[in-house]
Amino acid sequence: PHGQSVRCISLGSRQQLCGNPQVRRLKHVGLMNERCLDMATKKSRPNPSKKSRLSTEANSRCPFKAAPLVESLRDLALNEPLDIEELANEGAACGGCSYYASRSAVEHAQLILLPYQLLLQKSARNQLGISLKGSIVIVDEAHNLLDSVAQLHGSEINRQQLERAKVQISCYKEHFQKRFNTKNLLKINQIIFIVRRLLKILDQRKENQPNSSSMMRTYELTAEGDFFNIDLCELLDFCARTRFARKVQGHADRMEREPRPSENQPPVSTARSLILQRLASEQKQKEKPKPVKRKAEDIEDKAEEFQEQQKPPRKPVQEAAPSPIRPLLAFLETLTSNAEDGRILLDPVGGTLKYILLDPAEQFADIVEEARSIVIAGGTMQPTQELKEQLFTSCQDRLVERFYNHVVADDAVLPFVISNGPSGASLSYKFAHRASPEMLQELSMLLRNLCQVVPGGVVCFLPSYEYLDKVYKYLEQSGTLETIRCRKSVFREISGSAEQLLDNYALAIKKPASGGALLLSVVGGKLSEGLNFADDLGRAVLVVGLPYSNRQSPELGQRMQHLDAKLGPGAGNEYYE
Predict the structure, then answer these.
(1) In 3D, which of 227, 231, 156, 174 has the Cα closest to residue 196?
(2) Residue 55, pLDDT score
(3) Alpha-carbon distance 156 to 331, whole Å?
(4) What is the per-residue pLDDT across 298-308, written as a single tens digit (0 to 9) for each?
(5) Does residue 213 contact residue 348 with C-beta atoms inside 8 Å?
(6) Same domain, 198 and 347
C-alpha cells in the first residue's frame, strides 16, 4: 500500500540493465564493464557529419547515455517501484540507459534494493554515493552472509593474467615513457617488478613442489617475492588517482586495433618520407643507364608485390579477454589487509595465487558502526552462534533474535531419506562414489520411477554443475531420458541461466493434459535460493547427496583451523557440518 509514496530504486549490474547491443553481445561481465566505461567517456564529435577515418562503431559514444533520456528514465523509476526486469524493459523502450539511470536515482531514493556485492564492499558503496549512516540495512537470504563476505573480499590471479599484465604495462610504459615524470615512472616500474616477482614465485614453486599447494601469510609472500619494502597502499592510491587500469587497457585496445607491420616489412610511409623516397629513386634512375623495357606482365607483378608489402599483416583472430590489470590490483589490495585475517593459497599446478579471507569481521565492521540497525533475515539461519561471534562481537548487547514457524504446515510436507536404490543397492553419493556407473544407474532408475507416480513438477537438486552434466549424459546414453520425456518434459539448469528456464518449466506444467515436468538443478545455484516451488511446481523435491565441500581441500582446512583458534575447539567441525 505504500509503494506509491516511497521513492524506490533497484540497482543491478550492466549484464542485467545495459541496453546497448554492442555491450550486451559480449560474453564476459568484465568485458561489458570495460566497453561501457570506454563508450561512456567518449566525447562526441563537434561535426557529426564528418566521420573520422579511424572511427568505428565500437568506438563511438553510447547513444543510450544521453542526459535527457537518462534523467527521464530516472524520474520514472523513482515515481513507480520497478524491479530489475521492468527497469531494463523501460530503458529499452525509451532508448535510455537503465544502468546509469538507476545510479543517478540513488541520492533521491528512500529505499534502495541492491545485490550483496554493492552493499558489502565499501569501495562499491563509495562509487555509488551510498551512505549507511543512520540507515536501516536489511539483508535477505542471509544464511550465506559469511561466505558472501569472504568471497567478495577474496581475490585470485593466475599465470596467464600476470603474463598479460606484464606485457600490457611494459608496452604502456615504453610508449609514454617520455611523458611520465620521475615519480609516476617509479610507480609503474614497481608494478612491473611485483608482477615479475609473482611469476618467478610460481615458476620456482612449480620446479621445487610441482604437485603440492601451500598456504602462506601475506607478509610471507611479499618477503619471498622481495617486494616487502614497496608501499602497496601508496601504489594502489597512485593507480586509483591516475586511473591506471583504464589507461593501460585503453592503450592495449588501441594497439590491438592498429595495423602493425611485421619484422621483415618497413612501416607504412608518411607523405614526407614518400616524397623523399621518390626523389632518391629518381636520382638513382638518372645515374643508371636506361634499362631494357620490361614487359607489361613484369610491371604488373612488381606492382602487385608492392601492394602486398604495403598491406598490414593479418593478425590471428583472438577471443577478447577481460583486462588483467583490475584482477592484479585487486590481488595487491588484499595484501594490504591484516595478516591474521587471511591466507594466500599458492597452487603451482594451476598457476594461481588466491587470497582467502578467514575473518570477515573487519570487512563488515564499517556496516555495523554506520548503520542505525541491521536486520538479518533468512529461512535457514540456525544455528546463529557462528554468525554472531564472527560479525557482531562488538555489539553483543544490541542483538535481538526472533524465530518464527515455517509458512508451510507440518502436515503438508513429507520428508524422508532414501538409503537404498530401486535394485536394493545402498546409495552412497560421496564425492568418490557418486560418479560410479552403479550410483548413476540407481539415480536414473529412481528418477524414472518418481516421474511415473508423482504428478506435476519434480525438482532434483544435484551437488554441482559438473555432476549434473554427468547425470544428464548418463540419462541420455541409457535411454532413461526418453522414457521420462514420454511422461514429463525435462529441463536442465545451466550456469548463468535461470529466469527463462523457470518460466518454461512453469508453462510446461500448466499445459492442459500435461504430465508435468522434471527440473534438474544445482544446490547453491540460482534456482535453489529465493524461489518458491509452490503447488504443482514442486510436488516432489529430490536432493541427491549432501553438498559438503571436500574436507581435504587446503582452503577448507585452513578455515577450520582458524575457527578452532578463534572460537574454540570444535568450531571448525561445526562449520563444516
Answers:
(1) 227
(2) 44
(3) 6
(4) 444 444 444 44
(5) yes
(6) yes
Q: pLDDT digit string (tens) for 272-298?
A: 565 566 666 766 666 655 544 444 444
Q: Cα–Cα distance between 7 and 79 in angstroms, integer?
A: 6
SS (H, E, C) 96-110: CCHHHHHHHCHHHCC
* Tens-digit pLDDT profile for residues 120-168: 888 888 888 888 998 999 998 888 888 888 888 889 999 999 999 999 9
* Statement to judge: residues 231 and 343 lie in one domain: yes
Mark out the alpha helices in 41-158 (DSSP H runs): 67-79, 84-94, 98-104, 116-120, 122-128, 145-152
User: Would the pTM of this model clear 0.90, i.e. be above it?
Assistant: no
Same domain, residue pair 73 and 12: yes
Instruction: State the residue range of the domain holding 218.
Output: 155-255+322-357
Q: What long-range pairs does 302-311 form, CB within 8 A, spacing at least 24?
A: 309/265, 310/268
**Domain end point (choices 370, 404, 438):** 404
Looking up cell 595487491, which residue turns up?
332
User: Distance from CA of residue 442 to its chain's centroid?
Assistant: 36
Q: Which of 227, 217, 194 is nearest to 346 (CA)?
A: 217
Q: Among residues 404, 439, 463, which one ends one of the domains?
A: 404
Distance in angstroms (rounded) separating the CA atoms of residues 153 and 366: 14
CA 239, CA 194: separation in Å to the nearest integer? Answer: 14
Mean of the per-residue pLDDT values for the chain?
Answer: 81
Tell me the pLDDT tens digit for each residue of 324-344.
999 999 999 999 988 888 899
Is 273 a domain residue? no
